[in-house]
């Protein structure tokens, strides 16, 4: 029996398990890549460029970019302080706040929209007050920004928190021991060292915001964003008419990956 066991062990040792894992993973990679390539080659480039000039496509792209830039800026202004606080405290409160930050990431987007409607909807106290002031919080660009900020801002907080935690605390202590204030230490030591990670989070938040659909369609069917325009075109005119806007979003997704790799701090790796 012993020689048989030895031969089996030797055969197992010779087996190239790394190649097996790659072959199994390649099935999943094909599942990602084939639909994307099929989408790209399904329409001639000239036809796509012609449809990209359609007024509804230009309007949807303008709305999406404007709202995504605004929501990303809001997420950065309020998310960075929260990320720094989370990176520098310990205890139960940190756990609770971190869970609260992650909650929008795990909620289905359509549920996120429903949650927001209970606060800023047209029949709520805040929604009515804003509408009376001439700033409707739904069916407006403000509604799009609110939806995008809710679902995209956690990317800034979570990624920046990790970047701040990666900064050596001894460098901050050394700065403060030399008489520098906490704000000066943050500005001259912590922020530069964590900047690449922070920028990666901002990039991810922008990409998530510009592709947001579920929460946006609940709060603001109009003005149409690119994902909403894709849905309208697909459901009313078919896949071919939805393709130009989808091509823009695919381009933005690829550009996001390029930026993240250029930063050298890809949190997805």
Automatic annotation (TrEMBL):
Residues 61-264 form the ABC transmembrane type-1 domain. PROSITE patterns: ABC_TM1. It is found in: Cell membrane. GO terms for cellular component: plasma membrane. It holds the Pfam family BPD_transp_1. Keywords: Cell membrane, Membrane, Molybdenum, Plasmid, Transmembrane, Transmembrane helix, Transport. It comes from the Archaea. This is ABC transporter permease. It comes from Halalkalicoccus jeotgali (strain DSM 18796 / CECT 7217 / JCM 14584 / KCTC 4019 / B3). The lineage of its organism: Archaea, Methanobacteriati, Methanobacteriota, Stenosarchaea group, Halobacteria.
